[in-house]
Amino acid sequence: MKRSAKKKEKSKINYKVLIISFLIVIIVAGIGSQFTSSQVNSSWYQETKPSITPPNFVFPIAWTILFFLLALSLYYSWTNSNSNQKVVLAASFGLNFFFNICWSIFYFGLKNPGFALFDLISLWLSIILMIKVTYKIDKKASWLLVPYLLWVSFAGILNYLSI
Length: 163
Prior knowledge:
The model has no long low-confidence stretch (mean pLDDT 95). By secondary structure, the protein is mainly alpha-helical. It has one domain: Up-down Bundle (Ferritin), CATH 1.20.1260.100. It is built from 8 helices and no strands.
């Protein structure tokens, strides 16, 4: 196959994978929000959150952007990976999504910031793993995860201060 034909083939959007990537991320976000949304105005959270916590309206905006970037990273890395890389990708993203959901359960569902912080450290490490895995496949997919890492780092500070 000629180089230009190969490049043209690669630039086509795989809508099936794109939609599946977004659906996976939407499901993860939806599960986590089941534990979060009802608690952000609770007296427990109002008494627990540190004074440097942004206003409540910031969180849905930030998470919408982050989940959008996560879905794009998943899409780009999946469509540019080989079958061996897909196994590692699925494992790293799956692990990350698991820790992401667990944080909401531990922090808001169980109201246990200490255990949530332990999970958040695991979540942070899983983001580092995702960045490393995706970097070998598609650098732009890797860079799309950096805002997520930064936000979770800030969330870690907030989580620590709420203990």
